[in-house]
Amino acid sequence: MHENSTMKNNAIALVTGAAGIIGTEICAALSDAGWRVAATDLSEEEFNLSEIYQGAVRADGLFYADLSDLSACAKLVHEVEATLGPISLLVNNAALGQYFGGIGNVRPEDYQRLVNINLLAPFFLTQAALPSLREHLGSVVMISSVLSQMPKDGATLYGVTKAALEKQTEFLAHDLCKHGVRVNAIRVGSVPGGHFLRERMKGMEPERARALYEDVMKIHAADIAQEGEVPLLGKPADVANAILFLASEQARLVNGCTFPVDGALVIREPVMERLNQRKKSIDDIVDSYTKAYETSVSTKD
């Protein structure tokens, strides 16, 4: 019988991007495993949106920070530790997944914002939390994406920042292992809950936003039901379970690695046409809800 060392007896975990679909699941899984969770996102609005379609984020404290402002990183860590206690686990889940449609549309400030949120904030959050992580022999988990390995139209900047995040993971693991701190990354595949969907839901009436979310999840569930023994499509819980493992004693020799949670998507290239068709179905649903919402707003005006 293996020792279950996932339970942490009230150790503190800081989760960024906690109001997202994946972030909400991460917070719930850590709470179930005995962690005290500090959940952070951009604003109260982000948590309110999450509550509409997923329920309230399960956390011991909600914190707000704009991680495009790098000075917010140290302030956030200080606030969390002053409120809940020293951090033993840092989950760098926050990311900006903005698509630009081509490099000709990118302004310097657009690129800088992506770099700040997706790459530099994880570094400076790790830096700020290091004294506590070192004291408690803690760990850091970065959330990456298969787009770090698979170029996609419009996602050049996002893919570059995620590729750099994976390399940063290796170098931080090398630097921090002498302090007893492990640093790993998770490369997430096709899991619902992207930034794009949440942005389109903002401003919608709660009932419309909830219906949109449920329709998108139905498509995802139907695709999962049609898969073979080795699935390609994931659920937010798959990412959360990988974090529980990487933060546990069972992973004590796992350091500096990027842990794929992607159903081997990167090496199953023939499935890309199928995924693109699925994305078009979801885009069509999102567009129909958005147009209906815009029509209702203009009618009221």
What percent of residues are in strands? 5-15%
Low-confidence stretches: 1-5
User: Termini distance?
Assistant: 65 Å
CATH topology of the largest domain: Rossmann fold
Radius of gyration: 19 Å
Give the tally of structural domains.
Answer: 2
CATH class placement of the largest domain: Alpha Beta
The residue-averaged pLDDT reads 85
CATH superfamily of the largest domain: NAD(P)-binding Rossmann-like Domain
CATH architectural arrangement of the largest domain: 3-Layer(aba) Sandwich
SS-based class? alpha/beta
Main β sheet profile: 7 strands, parallel
Broad shape: globular
Which strand order spans the largest sheet, edge to edge or round the barrel?
A: 3-2-1-4-5-6-7
Portion in helices: 40-55%
What letter string, H or E per element, gives the SSE order?
EHEHEHEHEHEHHHEH
Number of helices: 9
Description:
This protein has 301 residues and is an alpha/beta fold. It has 2 domains: 12-191 and 234-267, Rossmann fold; 194-230 and 268-301. The protein has 9 helices and 7 strands; from the N terminus they run E-H-E-H-E-H-E-H-E-H-E-H-H-H-E-H. A 7-stranded parallel sheet has the order 3-2-1-4-5-6-7, sandwiched between helices. Helix 4 (108-135) links the parallel strand 4 and strand 5. Helix 3 (71-83) packs parallel to helix 4. The longest helix has 29 residues, at 272-300. The N and C termini lie far apart (65 Å).
